[in-house]
Amino acid sequence: MNFWTSTKSKKSQLLQRKTSSTVEQVFTFLTDGRALGDKEEHVRHELQDAGLAIIDAKGKSNVEVLIDIFEKGLAAKDEGSKVQDHIKESIIILYGSLARHLDESDPRLDDIVTRLLKALDTPSEDVQFAVSKFGVW
Q1: What is the arithmetic mean of pLDDT over 106-134?
Q2: For 67-104, b where at least 16 C-beta lie within 10 A, e where not — what string?
Q3: Which of 28, 40, 48, 113 has the smallest count of CB within 10 Å of its CB?
Q4: What 3-state DSSP class applies to 33?
Q5: Predicted pLDDT at 78
Q6: Which sequence spans correspond to the domains of the chain?
Q7: What gap in Å lies between CA 86 and CA 90, rounded to an integer?
Q8: Which domain of life does this protein belong to (predicted)?
Q9: pTM beyond 0.85, yes or no
């Protein structure tokens, strides 16, 4: 078993044990703890993939807490740093993934799409690209 296979297996095992408070702790670590802004690209991608897997498995039952975390992350004052750009880019991708758990008639879906479109105002090309490629609409 190589490292990547082992990592994916560990992610699957962790997903089975996630409770709502654990999900909140993980996403707080990813955003407020700035883990999604890690200097190593492969680490950022692995953490983002883990976040996407958690949202796929537990997003529907954690919509409210995740919306709050993502809104806080996107509303953070612009520092003009690459770290913050990486974090916001990942939050946009995670937020869009979470939106897929909402029914089309859910009014929060419009709020999320509006928020993602507002992120286009961010002067970061990476953040703008993340919004443009993410097809929730």
Answers
A1: 74
A2: bebbeebbeeeeeeeeebbbbbbbbbbbbbbbbebbee
A3: 40
A4: coil
A5: 83
A6: 3-133
A7: 6
A8: Eukaryota
A9: no
Q: How far apart are CA 126 and CA 26, in angstroms?
A: 23
Cite the DSSP H helix spans in the chain: 3-16, 20-31, 41-58, 63-75, 82-99, 107-118, 125-133
Distance CA 81, CA 88 (A): 11
Whether 52 and 44 have beta carbons less than 8 Å apart is answered as no
Percentage of the residues of the chain whose pLDDT score is greater than 90? 50
From residue 79, alpha-carbon distances to 13, 40, 86, 99, 123 in Å are: 36, 20, 12, 27, 11
